[in-house]
User: Fold this.
Amino acid sequence: MSVIRIASGGPWEDAFGYSRAVIAGPNAYVSGCTAVVDGVVHNEGDPYGQAMTAFSLALEALKESGFGKEHIVRTRMYVTHSRDMAPVGRAHKELFDAMRPAATMVVVSKLIDPQMLVEVELDAYRDGAR
Assistant:
């Protein structure tokens, strides 16, 4: 089985030694994505907007890996306040209602930057390797 590692050029990948996505046979694992684009947190104070941005970045990494949204089998959402669960859940439903992946949402004390309200991860599976 081959393992393919995909980088996004994000500021923490080299500093912390990880890949944006890892493809292992029929599986794809997308690392935590936030609303940081070109080093700037987008949608400050807006958990729905941050979730949509974070999921968009994760989906782009998945697409670059040769997987589609239909291959997603699990999502994870980390929010910094329980009041943000509903808007983040709404973003998740809008994006993934048709495929209904297994999902987890947890409240954490904080993320790496205090402006970040949401971090998401994706796991995907498809028959056959790339």
